[in-house]
Design goal:
The protein is an alpha+beta fold. The protein has five helices and four strands.
Length: 158
């Protein structure tokens, strides 16, 4: 599923739930998102907030949907980085120890792109805080209903 389509679905969900009180704030500036390869060391937008995040390919395919909670102890920023492992610039690789590096269920081009930091991270603050789990599950369901499968790095609806 394309990230732009998923964001449109989330906008529709927001209008349906409560048109007078937006529950999210997406960080997408001029169509660009946080790029781990070129922006590592800069603060991930909305890093300390509770919310959701997407790993998105350069072709706009959603690879992963996750949530980050526990404001004050890392929130979105901590969770997005937890999957990637430490940043190490080794030849062309930025994240040689990422979570999916040995997972044969993940396509080689996805594992290589993650290792090389060639993907984007989109973040969204979700209010109220406890709604992050619901929004994550709804986005996963939308992907499943649309594509007949979860994003390639998600293993279950959680």
């Amino acid at each position: 599923m394309k990230a732009t389509d998923l964001l449109e679905e989330l906008d529709e969900l927001q209008r349906m739930l409560n048109p007078r009180r937006p529950f999210r704030e997406f960080w997408v500036e001029s169509g660009l998102a946080y790029c781990p390869r070129t922006q590592w060391g800069q603060v991930i937008p909305l890093a300390g907030e509770n919310g959701i995040y997407l790993y998105v390919s350069d072709e706009d395919d959603v690879w992963y949907i996750g949530k980050g909670v526990q404001r004050g102890r890392g929130g979105i920023g901590r969770r997005t980085c937890a999957h990637l492992g430490p940043y190490k610039r080794v030849t062309d690789q930025c994240f040689p120890g990422h979570h999916w590096r040995t997972d044969d269920r993940v396509a080689d081009h996805v594992r290589i792109a993650l290792s090389n930091g060639r993907f984007k991270i989109l973040t969204a603050k979700v209010t109220p805080d406890k709604a992050s789990s619901v929004v994550e599950a709804l986005l996963l369901w939308i992907c499943f209903a649309t594509d007949g499968q979860l994003p390639p790095l998600n293993r279950r609806m959680s």
